[in-house]
Amino acid sequence: MKNLSTLLFGLLMLGACSQEHSKEYLSISINLENNKDSIIVIASRQKTIKEIKVNATGIFKDTIKLKNKIGEVYTMQTSSNKVAPIYLKNGFNLSLNGDADKFIESFKFSGNGASNSNFILTQIKKNQELGDPKEIVNLEENAFRKKIDRLKSEYDSILNSYNNLDSALYNSMARQNEQFVEYFNAEFARNKTMGIGRPSPKFENYTNIKGGAMSLDDFKGKYVYIDVWATWCGPCIQQIPYLQSMEKEYHTKNIAFVSISTDESRRNGNSWEAAEKKWRVFVEKKNMSGYQLWSGKDYSFQQAYQITGIPRFILIDPDGNIVDANAPRPSDPRLKTLFNSLKI
Questions:
Q1: What is the model's pTM?
Q2: Number of domains, the chain
Q3: What three-state secondary structure class fits 119?
Q4: What pLDDT, on a 0 to 100 scale, did the predictor assign at position 259?
């Protein structure tokens, strides 16, 4: 599903000459009760648009001139854990009232252009109520179809309940609602072949850093927690300490921790030998535990699991069947809950 902050919008239509000056900037006033932060930062995806000092009462009023003159979702942030979306466009005259302690849950916009931000906040709340998508795609087909039809109707109802939405935002969100259905239909179809209890696709003869080669069948009789990663992947590297900790904790249990590196020659412009060497050096430097494998030129396992982004974690049962094709990361507390439920 698309993130709201990535949406692009059409150009702002200019009014008559007497109105041009007001459409060269927007006005914004904010009243945050219980605010303890002195700066509010408003930013686009690329850069900070404005930093505004807030007085002790949490009140400020200012103007912002958007260079591109387009409607877009920006972020408003007072600290690292207090970030909220705000839809801005030259010509708007916005007011925001809220509570800094509750932050986004308390926000209410008013004034010219307010419907756009209020709609986005409602959309976020609806997304949070959606729950785990896996539970939806695991439904029986009739129940799944009814669930998706109802959710699509609810999302469309939210969109159409807000008057005076910027046309580009409306059109983009209408399309996103269609993509919502497309996404779940695709996931439901994939779950038919890659769902819980289905036989897992296999990898064969992947290079083992300790020598020789290993295949998925070598782990029959054990649960297998697979980490598909690469040395160039920042989020993958971030998970390594958590993965090492999990491997240490469950070292004597009936589970194998298998890391499959997808490092390949295109990433460094050199040979496959160079790609393999980079992987070996990295694993040794990080003193990575568990089974460390390199897939080399074989992409079949990645393709079978439709892996388009890494890290990707997969849990397979002792019979070689899928427990979770997109398992929680080692840093996610839900992983230990899953392990405990399986009595690993």
A1: 0.63
A2: 2
A3: helix
A4: 98
